[in-house]
Amino acid sequence: MAMVGSLPRNNMRNCCIALAVIGVAVTPAAAKTRPVFDIPAGNVGRALVEFGRQAGWNVGMTDPVLARRPSNRVKGRHRPVEALRLLLRSTGANFMMLDDHSAKVFADALPALRPAPLSRPADAGPTPEIVVTASKQQTPLARYAGTVRVVSLSAASPSSSTAQGTATLVAQLPMLSSTELGPGRNKVFIRGIADSSFNGASQSTVGHYLGDARLTFNAPDPDLNLYDMDRVEVLEGPQGTLYGTGTVGGIIRFVPNPPDMANVKGSITTAIDYTSKGGGGGDGGAMVNVPLMIDRLAMRVVTYGSIESGYIDDPSRGRSNVNQTKTKGGRLALRWQPSPDWTVDGGLVVQDIASADGQYVIAGAPDLTRVTRIAQPFDNDFRLGYITLTHHAGSISLTSTTSIVRHDIATVFDATPNNPVAPTSRYDEQSDITLIAHETRVSGATDTLSWVGGLAGLYNKNRFTTAIGGPSASTVSNGVENQVEQLASFGQLTYCPHCKVEFSGGARAEVTRSEGSLLLRAQGDVAEPSRVDIRLSPSLGIGWHAGDRLLVFGRFQQGARSGGLAVSPLDNRTTSQRFQADTLRAVELGVRAGGRETTHAWLNATLSYAHWNNIQADLIDSAGLIYTTNLGDGYVLGLEAQGGISPLANLIVDGALFINSSALSDPVPAFDTSRDRDLPDVAATGVRLSAAYSMQLSQRDAIDFSGTLRYVGPSKLGIGTPFALSQGRYLMSSMAVSYAVDDTRISLGIDNLGDVRGNRFSFGNPFGFAAGDQRTPLRPRSFRVAVSRSF
Q1: pLDDT tens, residue by residue, 475-519
Q2: What is the C-alpha separation between 217 and 220, in angstroms, rounded?
C-alpha cells in the first residue's frame, strides 16, 4: 500500500544524521560475570553441541572424523572463547570466529584447505546447524521458512575462482541472472524480478550487503572480489520488512571471514590463466590476520588483484584482445572486544575495476571481432567504510551498523554514426554516488518465540551526467541529480508453540523523501518539487516441520521502489520527466528436505508468483541516450529446485533448476502495441548439474575432481521493438582437479570446454544496438592454474 504525506523539508536529513550518531555513540558496559561451564568429556561433536547450549553460541563443523575424536572436560567459570579453547585442546582442532557468538571448528593441520569427506557417516554425532545470519535472528537453515541459498566459498573448492566475483554466484545459482556488460557494470536479478537491461536512475531491484553494511541503492553490482569470504547468502524477495521496501528482488549478503583474536594466520593464492584466441592473465590474493591483544583486539588485512585477458579484436584500429579488465583492491577489518558482551567491528573496502573496452562483437563479422572508431573504456571505483557495535545480554542482542559508500562510475561509448564519412563522436557517462546507511536493531528468542525490531535510515545522492563531442573533447549534454532520504521502523516475530508449526509476521513502515533536479534546464522548465511517500511493507509466513529435517513453508512479502527524476527523451534532453514508484507483492510455497551437510540426499523447491505494479525501467531512446519511465503492470511466475545425492563416500552429485515465465500483462499505451512483452534478461530455463569427488591419498594429502554442466535458456534484451533481441540458448561445461598436501593446494581449472560462443547479451553500445547485430560471446575456452598456501 502507498500513501503520500508531507514532512518539513530538512527533517529527514536531520533524522538520518541522528540515527548515525546513535550508531557510534553507544559505549560498552562493564564486563559481566563469566559463565559457569560443565561440559563432560566425550567426543568433539557432542561436546560442541553442549558448549553451544551452555554458551548460547552457534558452532559449525562438517568434518565427521574430527567429530569422533575424544574431547576434554571443561568445568568452571570461563569466558566462552577460553572454554572452547580448553575443550579443543589436544584434539588436533582449532576454531575461527565468524561473529561474536559464532565459530567454525576445523582440523588444526589445515583449517581452510584440507578436504573433508563429502558424505557424513551415520555415527559422526550431531552436526551443528548452518545459521542464516541474513535473517537477523540467527535462524538455523533447517528452520528458516523462506527461500535462501547459501554459497560456501571455502578455499578447499577445487574450482574456486574468487577473482570472478559475482560471476561465481551466477554460475552456481540458476535463479540468479545478470546483464553482461562486464565486471562492475552489470545489473543482477533474483528469481526473474528484472526491470531492464540498462543502467539508469531507477533503484536496484537487489540489495547488496557486506555483513550488515549496505553497498548499493541505485548503482550496478560493485562485483566485489570474493577472496577470504566465508560464504554468500542470497535471500529471495521481496525483502521489504527486514531490508527496506526497495529490495523487491531480494538481497545478496557477502559474509567475510572475521578477524581471529587468538591466532596469527595468513594465506596466499597466485594463479595464471590463458584464454584461447585471447591472451594470458592472472590473479592473486593474500590475507594476514594478527591478534593485537589476545582475545581483545585483532586485525585482518586482505589484498588482491587480477588481470582478465581480452579476446576481442578490432582490426580497424589494429588492436587485438581489446577487452582486457584489471581489478585491484583490498579490505581491512578490525575487531575489538572490550568485554565478553560487547564487540566493535570496523572496516574499509577499496576496489577499482578498469575495463579497456567493451566485450561485444558484431554478428556477421569475423569471429570475435568488431569495428569501432575509438576505444570504449569503463571504470568503477568503490569505497566503503563501516562500523558495527554488537551487545549480547542473555538471549537478547543489540546490533548497530553505520556505513558510508562512495561509488564513482565512468563509461565511454563510440557515438559515431554508421556513415564512413561522418566525424568521430564520443559519448561519456559519469555517475557519482554517495550512500550513507544506518540500522540499529534488537533481537531475542525464547523457547517458543523469536523476534527482531529496529530503526533504519538512509541517504543516497546520485549525480548522473552525460557529455558528447569529439574523440578528444566533449561538452556536457545534460544530467540529473537525484537525492533520496529514508527513515524506517521495522519488526518481525516468529511464534512456534510446539516447534511443529511456526507462524511469522512483520512489517516495515518507511518514510521516503525524494528530490530531483535537471542540471541544465530549458527555459521555462521548472525545478521538480520534493516528494514524500509513506509506505507499509508487511510479510506473513508459516512453516510446518512435517518430519525430521523436512520443512514445508509459505510466505507473503511486499516491496516498493521510490520514484525519481530522469531526463526526458522528448526534447533534446533539456526537459525532465518524473518516473513513479512501483510496488511488488509476492507469494511463495516451498519445501526443504535434508541438507548437504547432514544427509545423503536433499532437496529444496519453491513455487513463487509476483505481481508487479507500475514497473520502473531504464531504457534507451532513438538517439541512443538513457532515460527512465514506467512500463505498466506485470507478473513473474517461477519454479526453482536445488538438490543432490551422495551415492558413494566422498562423491556428491547435485543440480539446480529454474523455470521462469514473466511478462508485461497491462502495459502503458506506449508499450501496448508490442506482442513481445516478456520481462528482460531472465532466461526461461536455467539448469546446472555438477559432480565432485574427493579422494584421501594419505594422512597428509588428497585429490579432488569436479565437473559442471550449465544450460542458459532463451531470453530477450528488453520489451518491444527495438529491444526484443534474442539471447541465451547455450550450454557451458567446465572441469577442475586439485591436489592438496598439508597446507598447500595446486589446482587446474578449464572453463568452456566446448569453446562455445553463444550470446550472453545482445547489447554493447547504445548508439548501434538498434541494428540488432550486437552480441556478447562467451569467453572462449580458458585455463587457470593456481597455487594456494595457508599458514
Answers
A1: 666 788 899 999 999 999 989 887 789 999 999 999 999 888 887
A2: 9
